[in-house]
């Protein structure tokens, strides 16, 4: 893993990368993270998020299309700890997270569009490993996501970075 992810440098070196609209807050322990994308699409139900983080992450980034809901959190301290323990590099949530003080001390990159204290429903709804579109970008499983305090970029393949 390169010692530092710097998305402005990535954009300069790879002008064709997709850049998500600047909607996201960096709320996890690491300021920067990257990895191959896996996806969850759900709305106010984090059952599929819980399922995914319970599996080996192998350095991947879980991209959660929560429909941009600001009415509940799709990730909290317990699922973030499970994700970190299972080797996920990070989670990007187009929705809210909670327990942010604990998330900041967790060895998991986390970016989300907001925070909310209420937990989501658990109805077993949602989809995994599907193409999602939000923040002006379409993201598919197997692409590579790079995130830092400057923003989030997506590439069709792993990029060669100088670290």
Labels describing this entry:
RraA/RraA-like; two-stranded antiparallel ribbon; 4 helices; Glucose Oxidase, domain 1; 4-hydroxy-4-methyl-2-oxoglutarate aldolase; RraA; alpha/beta; 163 residues; globular; 10-stranded mixed β-sheet
Question: What can you see in these coordinates?
Answer:
Homotrimer. Its EC number is 4.1.1.112, 4.1.3.17. One of its GO terms (molecular function) is 4-hydroxy-4-methyl-2-oxoglutarate aldolase activity. It comes from Chromohalobacter israelensis (strain ATCC BAA-138 / DSM 3043 / CIP 106854 / NCIMB 13768 / 1H11) (Chromohalobacter salexigens). Helix 3 links the parallel strand 5 and strand 6. This protein is 17% helix and 33% strand. The strands form 2 sheets. Strands 1, 2, 3, 4, 5, 6, 7, 8, 11 and 12 form a 10-stranded mixed sheet that branches. With 163 residues, it is α/β, with parallel strands linked by helices. The protein is built from 4 helices and 12 strands, in the order H-E-E-E-H-E-E-H-E-H-E-E-E-E-E-E. The protein has one domain: Ribonuclease E inhibitor RraA/RraA-like (Glucose Oxidase, domain 1), CATH 3.50.30.
Give, in order, the helices and strands. Answer: HEEEHEEHEHEEEEEE
Low confidence ranges? none
Examine the coordinates and then state which fold CATH places here, giving the name of the CATH topology. Answer: Glucose Oxidase, domain 1
- In the CATH hierarchy, what is the architecture at level 2? 3-Layer(bba) Sandwich
CATH homologous superfamily label: Ribonuclease E inhibitor RraA/RraA-like
Largest sheet: 10 strands, mixed
The helix fraction, in percent, is 10-25%
Give the CATH level 1 class: Alpha Beta
Mean pLDDT, to the nearest integer, reads 96
Count of discrete domains: 1
What fraction of the residues are assigned to beta strands by DSSP?
25-35%
The backbone outline, from C-alpha atoms, is: globular
Structural class: alpha/beta
Please give the radius of gyration in angstroms.
14 Å
**How many β-strand runs?**
12
Distance between the termini: 8 Å
**Total number of helical segments?**
4
Family: Belongs to the class II aldolase/RraA-like family.
Keywords: Lyase, Magnesium, Metal-binding
Enzyme class: lyase
Subunit structure: Homotrimer.
